């Protein structure tokens, strides 16, 4: 049994990441397929089955090599029933029985969880969490996701919607509209799109010169990466945007830490590739807003797994099931 593999799947609206992973969390093989969400998403799980069989064949293995399949999916998931409550990007109707569909397609034991929660579990298992049992993960990508792990388990909430850190309100009045339908969510100021929006707002306001404005003139737009790169080079306007983003992240993570006192709060996702310039700045505000006993014990850290966090966390779901 110990030399068997688990299939880890990170399902996205356009791309599905797959990996064969050992019980120790080593990735044996990883690859991607495009997500076909046509016809109300009816091909998604059968395409995954096809991809797995092809890859097993390529590697000279059979289905017997596989222990089960874990999947992270976008949207709130009821872990017990394996139902995805709402998956607009995938074509599935509300309350889609994902676990059931996956088990029927693959004839493997399946487990499904929200994708941001899987990323948190991955970081707990093999990444920045380094085995920490109390961990909060904030994924800063196109949107902002969150996962809260307490005593080794994901906090689900009554409706699978716990840990939605991206939708904590940070601008209570007149905030920008969020994808969730509210306004002023953390996602509107700390996601890649939110950072660009803040930067464009500043660029419109002031007749400043500087590297960020030069990039806007040259490229007709700026990216979140441009903001961090030019801030690192001393661009004042970019530093102002960085400061605003860091304030909100420091404020939110400190208050989460004041509530949960986790061992670590991990910042992941594409935006976290900004590295220390972001982390150090968030840490300053975190220290300002965290309660003293929390400030001394809860650490802020950058995620270390990158794109692999999701498939690893998905595989962990199966490993954890087998251990129960
Ligand atoms: Zn929101």
TrEMBL record:
Query: Per the record's keyword annotation, is Kinase included, yes or no?
Result: yes
Cross-referenced Pfam families = ROK
Q: Which InterPro entries match?
A: ATPase_NBD (IPR043129), ROK (IPR000600), ROK_cs (IPR049874), ROK_glcA (IPR004654)
What organism does the UniProt record list as the source? Neobacillus rhizosphaerae
Decide whether keyword ATP-binding is in the record.
yes
Keyword set, alphabetical order = ATP-binding, Kinase, Nucleotide-binding, Transferase
- SUPFAM superfamilies noted in UniProt: Actin-like ATPase domain
Q: Which family does it belong to?
A: Belongs to the ROK (NagC/XylR) family.
- Top EC class of this enzyme: transferase
This chain belongs to which protein, by name? Glucokinase
User: What's the domain of life for this entry?
Assistant: Bacteria
GO MF annotations for this entry? glucokinase activity
């Amino acid at each position: 049994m110990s030399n068997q593999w688990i299939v880890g799947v990170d399902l996205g609206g356009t791309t599905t990441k797959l990996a064969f992973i050992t019980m120790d969390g080593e990735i044996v093989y990883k690859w991607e397929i495009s997500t076909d969400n046509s016809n109300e998403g009816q091909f998604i799980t059968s395409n995954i089955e096809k991809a797995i069989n092809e890859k097993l064949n390529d590697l000279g293995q059979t289905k017997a090599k596989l222990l089960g399949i874990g999947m992270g999916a976008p949207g709130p998931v009821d872990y017990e029933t394996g139902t995805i409550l709402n998956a607009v990007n995938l074509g599935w109707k509300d309350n889609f029985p994902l676990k059931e569909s996956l088990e029927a397609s693959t004839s493997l034991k399946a487990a499904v969880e929200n994708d941001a929660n899987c990323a948190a579990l991955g970081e707990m298992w093999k990444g920045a969490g380094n085995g920490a049992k109390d961990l909060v993960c904030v994924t800063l990508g196109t949107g902002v996701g969150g996962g809260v792990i307490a005593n080794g388990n994901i906090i689900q909430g009554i409706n699978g919607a716990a840990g939605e850190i991206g939708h904590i309100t940070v601008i209570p009045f007149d905030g920008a509209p969020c994808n969730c339908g509210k306004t002023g969510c953390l996602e509107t100021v700390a996601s890649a799109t939110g950072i660009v929006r803040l930067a464009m707002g500043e660029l419109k306001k002031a007749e400043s010169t500087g590297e960020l404005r030069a990039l806007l003139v040259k490229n007709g737009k700026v990216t979140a990466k441009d903001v961090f790169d030019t801030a690192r080079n001393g661009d004042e306007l970019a530093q102002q945007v960085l400061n605003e983003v860091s304030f909100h992240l420091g404020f939110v993570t400190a208050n989460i830490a004041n509530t949960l006192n986790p061992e670590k709060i991990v910042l992941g996702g594409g935006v976290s590739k900004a590295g220390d310039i972001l982390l150090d700045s968030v840490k300053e505000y975190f220290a300002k807003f965290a309660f003293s006993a929390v400030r001394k014990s809860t650490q802020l850290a950058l995620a270390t797994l990158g794109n692999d966090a999701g498939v690893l966390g998905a595989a962990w779901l199966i490993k954890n099931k087998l251990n129960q």
